[in-house]
Amino acid sequence: MRVVAYALSAAWSVTACSGSGFVQEVERATELRGTEQSDEAVYRDLIAQLLQQEKYYAALAHIEEHQRSLGADPRLSLYEARALYGLRLDGQAKAIFLTLRDTAYGAEAHHGLGLIDARDAELQQAIEHFILAVRARPTNVAMRNDLGFALLRAGRTEDARLQLSTALELEPSNQRARTNLMLLMLIRGEEQSARQLAESVGMTDSELTQLRDQAERLRATIVPSTGG
Q: How far is CA 93 from the centre of its chain?
């Protein structure tokens, strides 16, 4: 298997995350898509697909076209904010996320705000937003993983373990949660536990060594927190 240091659902300064669970979680885990099969639903699916493929400019073009013909749609606004975040236009993305906090997509809005704060190294603010997101969507794996990684970055390893272990039990195949949990184990010196988890997914010794090196680099970035 290929070892990638996964952190948040979207990339930020510490690790390189290939792909994003952000849009997928809106469509699947939050169960907001419903059963509609209208042209509008098909069009939104196209936009979601473009976002998952990181084709942000194309997604924005389709969002603009859809909004012009059919008017405002909170889900499209969420997708617009996600595209802007993907393009690192964080100010514009944040403005949209803020308007969505009191909608049906409030959890996703706080998740997005947390991602922006994490990328800006505002770790405690990121944690606060991720906590609000997880409270609203307790079974959302991406949100729990992001909260867990942020807590790990803050040195709150036991709190991080709870979130990452929950994420992994909710979705055992989730590579982000599994990798982050292994990073936590290695940072804490829990070599045997990390090796057992590595063996359970067929990770080679060289891949585990690579992950161990990533854990050492991550350890140097941890900013101890006074949070509870």
A: 15
**pLDDT tens, position by position, 75-119:** 899 999 999 999 999 999 999 999 999 999 999 999 999 999 999
Per-run averaged pLDDT (10 residues), the chain, 228 residues:
45 38 48 57 86 94 86 88 96 97 96 95 95 96 95 95 96 93 95 92 89 93 67
Q: At what angle do helices 74-86 and 56-70 cross, to 10 degrees?
A: 160
For 55-96, give the DSSP string.
Answer: -HHHHHHHHHHHHHHH---HHHHHHHHHHHHHTT-HHHHHHH
Distance CA 75, CA 154 (A): 32
Which tokens sit at 13? 């300064």
Helix-then-strand count for the chain, H and E: 12, 0
